[in-house]
Design goal:
Layout (H helix, E strand, L loop, with lengths): L5 H14 L26 H17 L9 H16 L3 E5 L12 E6 L3 E11 L9 H21 L5 E8 L7 H9 L2 H6 E7 L10 E2 L8 H9 L5 E2 L9 H5 L5 E5 L8 H7 L23 H19 L11
Parallel strand pairs: 3-4, 3-5, 5-8, 6-7
Antiparallel strand pairs: 1-2, 2-4, 6-8
Helix pairs in contact: 2-3, 2-4, 4-10, 7-10
Bound molecules: tryptophan and zinc ion (ZN).
The site of zinc ion (ZN) has 6 residues, from helix 4.
């Protein structure tokens, strides 16, 4: 679903990208006329993201009510994401986690869009496993489904690429960030230094959530923040989630990281409720790691704003700002 003021941001951002400027100027709204280039970031249809969540919830229901890394619910989740990516033309790799993961954990899933400068990789990741207690729809169907839909939209749009985009769906996060840690450890140092930024999406649709960004003032975070700033959301640092999700695996190797999150079991402050709405004194997600983390535990407005900001960031970082031609078919 298209969020308000999106067109203006996209057009202006293209101007700043072309001019080599890092951020939107304060008078962004006053700039005119907006250019019409093919690199405008697409709107992500939140209904399609929610359709992926419905599938993940059904997968859990068929498999004892969860998608934990060692179970069939996880393997079926991998098969679902993989099938949708392959149908869109991606080459998808299952990476078995052969050290550091829980015995019997399923694989990581990696998909690269094979266009653009391979020495500049922008990576987008989410953990695909859940806990044993429930279906894991906000944690972390939300990040997983968001990335799947953005990947499908990239394949559908086929813009001219300036850099590589790689997606990762991680196994065994809930037992200690194990799948992503294995992935980063398995890279050569040259492969690690090719990753210019890693963006993590874990719990991006918390029902009583806030708008949190990892390393909010970093260079990597700039497009993530610019998008949410354009919606006047006044995002804050993701202090609750610091070091608790897969971005930490990349951070530990010195790779710049950012990402969106809407919060877990910590409680919303009155200041936050005043600016974002919701209930002060209540958890961002009262179903965190519990059986009620189902499709009803999703904030569709937050999910939409997250998904559109992921697409915005991907386009800003990796889509060519000047070329009007498309990737070869
Ligand atoms: N959701 C993560 C997990 O348990 C970790 C986490 C805790 C988190 N608090 C958070 C992530 C806040 C984002 C924001 O798998
Ligand atoms: Zn999580």
């Amino acid at each position: 679903m298209r969020a308000a003021r999106r067109t203006t941001l996209t057009g202006l951002a293209l101007v700043t990208a072309a001019a080599g400027l890092a951020a939107l100027p304060p008078d962004a709204e006053a700039a005119s006329p907006a250019p019409t280039l093919t690199t405008a970031a697409p709107d992500i249809d939140v209904a399609r993201v929610q359709a992926h969540l419905t599938e993940l919830n059904a997968i859990a229901s068929r498999n004892g009510g969860n998608r934990r890394s060692t179970g069939q619910g996880y393997r079926d989740s991998v098969a679902y994401v993989k099938g949708r990516l392959q149908a869109a033309g991606y080459t998808v790799t299952e990476q078995a986690c052969t050290s550091g993961c829980t015995r019997g954990a399923g694989p990581n899933l990696i998909a690269e869009w094979p266009y653009g400068d391979a020495s500049k990789v922008y990576m987008f990741g989410a953990h695909l496993d859940g806990v044993s207690a429930g279906p894991g729809i906000n944690d972390n169907g939300s990040g997983s489904a968001t990335l799947l839909e953005v990947a499908l939209k990239l394949a559908e749009t086929r813009p001219s690429m300036a850099a590589r985009v790689r997606f990762g769906w991680w196994t065994d996060e809930e037992q200690g960030l194990n799948g992503s840690d294995f992935y980063v450890r398995s890279l050569t140092s040259a492969q690690r230094s090719a990753i210019k930024a890693y963006y993590n999406f874990d719990m991006v649709a918390s029902p009583n959530g806030g708008y949190f960004i990892n390393h909010i003032n970093s260079t990597a975070a700039a497009p993530m923040k610019a998008y949410w700033d354009s919606l006047s959301l006044r995002p804050e640092e993701n202090t609750e989630g610091a070091g608790r999700s897969d971005d930490y695996s990349f951070e530990a190797y010195g790779i710049p990281t950012s990402g969106y999150a809407m919060g877990a079991s910590a409680r919303k402050t009155s200041t936050q409720a005043a600016k974002w709405g919701g209930t002060a004194g209540a958890a961002y997600d009262r179903c965190y790691h519990s059986s009620c983390d189902t499709t009803t535990n999703i904030n569709a407005t937050g999910l939409n704003r997250s998904a559109d900001g992921v697409a915005y960031t991907l386009w800003q970082q990796a889509v060519s700002a000047t070329a009007l031609n498309r990737a070869p078919r």
